[in-house]
Amino acid sequence: MYQRAHKYIKEKLEHPGFQKYSQNMGWMFFGRISTLILSFFVSVYMARSLGVENFGTLNFVISFVSIAGTFIFVIDSILLKKLSNEPENTDKILGSALVIKFVNAFLTIVTATVASFIFANSQITTILVLTFSTFTIFQSIHLIDIYFQSHATMKSVVPMNIFVAIASTIIKFILISLNVDIFYLLLSYVLDYLLSAVGYVYLYKKCVGKIFDWKIDKDLIRNFIINSWPFTISAIATVIYVRVDQIFLKIFLGSEAVGLYVVAVRFSEVWFFISGVVCMSLLPAILNAQKTNHELFLARSKKLYSLLFYLSLVICVLIFITAPFIVNILYGPVYAQSIVLLRIYIWSIIGVFIGTVLQQTLLAQNKFKTILLLNVIGMVLSLILNP
Fold first, then answer.
1. Does pTM top 0.85 for this prediction?
2. Long-range contacts of 198-202 (CB under 8 A, 24+ apart)
């Protein structure tokens, strides 16, 4: 029996498909962990150096643009699926998607700037929002990352992302040390996306071909737009669900309350990437199972649910116990009130992990309306309970 089990495990481990997806997931984990560690310590340094109020203002601007930037055509999941299923149409798919991405960037900049002018009632805040929102122009090029994900070849992308993260960290540490205005810190975030965009263009040209070979297909653009509406509304609901609390805190309690709250949120969100990396790495395998064997699809989905549930539970328990140590050591006594917030907010990880798997399995079954309904319910509850 032992020999049979050993042989079975060995066959699974040596299977080309398993090795391909596991290696891809390993590279994605390595890349995300490296960049997150760097960005996390930058965030901690910012929180300690800027103070509670300025740190709150910085994150308010980021949250404001995030909410304004959801009123766009959300196509990433559709793009990944099309690139996985129709590799022969890659040039048309990427070219058409890029057009939509640029339209999204324009809509985000205009919406965020106008909304801040109307609601923020502050010329300085409007300038900060306009400055930060321009990052969406360069973020459009990041669709190349989805191309590499669809081919499970993240090994090509990870070193570039780490290089950009290191450069970003150095720049931000220098700016914070020079005690510059928040404007320049927000501008440094835009520079991050510019550097990444240049890197993605270089990698695609090196590994695949010229971006100028991409083609624009009106039918594909129409298809993207028509199929994007459930994801668009879901994205609006999700971002409002995640970010609207910071807007309410700013309005009713001021920037200092936002700063205290963001410490708990940011430390919790650091762990969200795990579910995203696992799901995005294994999604091609799940999509293939859905097309060929429904029972295999269900089995793989069940294993994914179990893995992420128990993993999230372990993380929550550990953070709940060590919250006082984490906040006092990393952020300092001035953020002591964040300890209680962190102990409460950290349990959201379980819902996020399970929700990520649920959305991907529903996507594999083309149940777009169910995805939409779940996210809208979350948005409505958030809007009702926050005030």
1. no
2. 199/160, 199/161, 199/163, 199/164, 200/141, 200/142, 200/144, 200/145, 200/157, 200/160, 201/141, 201/144, 202/160
Question: Which CA distances in Å does 348 have to 353, 361, 385?
Answer: 9, 20, 15
Is the pLDDT reported for residue 8 higher than 50?
A: no
Residue 7 has pLDDT above 50, yes or no: no
pLDDT higher for 144 or 119?
Answer: 144
89 Cα distance to chain centroid: 26
Is there a contact between 81 and 363 (Cβ–Cβ < 8 Å)? Answer: yes
Read off φ and ψ for residue 121, nearest 5 degrees: 55, 40
The answer to whether 66 and 243 have CB atoms below 8 angstroms apart is: yes
Note whether 133 and 68 are within 8 A (CB).
yes
Residue 98 has pLDDT above 90, yes or no: yes
Q: What is the mean pLDDT of residues 19-28?
A: 58
Going from the C-alpha of 362 to that of each of 49, 198, 286, 289, the distances in angstroms are 43, 34, 11, 13
For residues 206 and 228, give the distance between their C-alpha atoms in angstroms, rounded to a whole number.
31
Which one-letter amino acid corresponds to residue 14? E
Alpha carbon of residue 283 to chain centroid: 16
Distance CA 238, CA 67 (A): 9
CA distances from 282 to 66, 111, 291 (A): 27, 35, 15
- Give the Cα-Cα-Cα angle 167, 155, 92 (nearest 5 degrees): 95
Task: Please count the other Cβ atoms lying within 10 Å of the Cβ belonging to residue 133.
Answer: 25
Structure tokens at 190: 């835009």
For residue 179, report the phi and psi dihedrals to the nearest 5 degrees. Answer: 60, 45
pLDDT score for 27: 62
State both tokens at 269. Answer: 């969100």
